[in-house]
Amino acid sequence: MPPALHLPQGTIEAIRGWQILICCNRMGFMVLLASMKRFAFLYVCAVVVSGMAAVKFGNLDTAALLHGKAVKSADLKGKVVLVDYWGVNCGPCKAALPRLQQTWESFNHKPFAMIGSHVQNPDDARVKSVLKEAGVTYPVYQDLRAEGTPDFNALPFICVFDAHGRLAYSGHGVPEAIEAVVTAITDSNGFVDLLSDARLDKYKSLKSQLSIGKNVEGAMKKLKADVAAAKKQPGNKVAQEKAAEATAILSSIKKTYERLVEDIALEVEDEDSVSALRDYMILTSTWPTAKAKADEKWGAAMKTFAADPAARKKAKIMFDELKKIK
């Protein structure tokens, strides 16, 4: 039995000194990719993208299945999906398989799917042997292609798509991919972090006001006022420092708002009544002035969704639980 999976905590731990990431290209040749210098993050060679259109998976037919149980596109709807592009001639690819299997075992009870895509020359017998030796149980296809996957020239290359089919991560790092999975699964459960890109050092007094389910517009008004005041005091260091932090907080709040609006639109389109109702509650309670615009867009849909007592009750329970998260 593989050892327990140790997930990254928060942001990925910085590493000291020079680091070398060894990858393989599709033909198995080694490629050395040097990371940034001291304290560089492991987001080497990674491309982090959000807000893309829902991804479409092709070549999921059984003829291309090399290992595991076949999946259908319908099975992936509403799930976080990790796709591992790898090759049997790639040493780092094979070394990553046990860790990916641990990830699968850790999250397969969640709305999560994992698919392997062998992209080097077909060698079914050898590929199956390697997968068996690594204890892999998730499905692996030959040349599976996910629309929206960025171009890549080195392996392994991993993509993580969120529950709406948007590309959340792409790159060569397994730890980074796992963190993206954790984040995407958490997001799919409705967790919303207003301050994911900001810190409250000079505005600790606003912490209780800047949380989901509470009207943040009063706090935003104060932050905007401080930014405006700092513009009139270019030589005031304290004012400039506060303004810089206020700007970062406002930017983070704006990103959260925009992401929430995007999520609601997709949930309404997918007729995901519980998630749509939950996120509508989050939006209209956190930004009350947005209610009129939200009702104009989705009022009819929300009325239809709310007509289902079970959906309405579940959404309310989820919303109340989210408000307790500090």
What does this structure look like?
There is one protein chain. The protein is α+β, with helices and mostly antiparallel strands. It has helices at 73-76, 91-107, 124-134, 174-188, 217-231, 237-269, 273-286, 291-306, 309-324, and strands at 20-24, 30-34, 57-58, 65-67, 80-86, 112-118, 140-142, 145-146, 157-161, 167-171. Strands 4-7-6-5-9-10 form a six-stranded mixed beta sheet. Strands 1-2 form a two-stranded antiparallel sheet. Strands 3-8 form a two-stranded antiparallel sheet. Helix 7 (273-286) packs antiparallel against helix 8 and helix 7 crosses helix 9 (309-324).
- The overall number of domains is 2
The biggest beta sheet is recorded as: 6 strands, mixed
Reading off the top of the CATH hierarchy, the class of the largest domain is best stated as Alpha Beta
Q: Output the helix-strand order.
A: EEEEHEHEHEEEEHHHHHH
Q: Quote the CATH topology of the largest domain.
A: Glutaredoxin
Enumerate how many helices there are, as a single number. Answer: 9
Whole-number mean pLDDT = 80
Instruction: Write the CATH homologous superfamily of the largest domain.
Output: Glutaredoxin
From the coordinates shown, what is the CATH architecture of the largest domain? 3-Layer(aba) Sandwich
Q: Outline the low-pLDDT stretches.
A: 1-54
Structural class: alpha+beta
Shape: globular
How many DSSP E strands? 10
Short descriptors:
globular, alpha+beta, Glutaredoxin, about 15% strand, about 325 residues, two-stranded antiparallel sheet, 10 strands, six-stranded mixed β-sheet
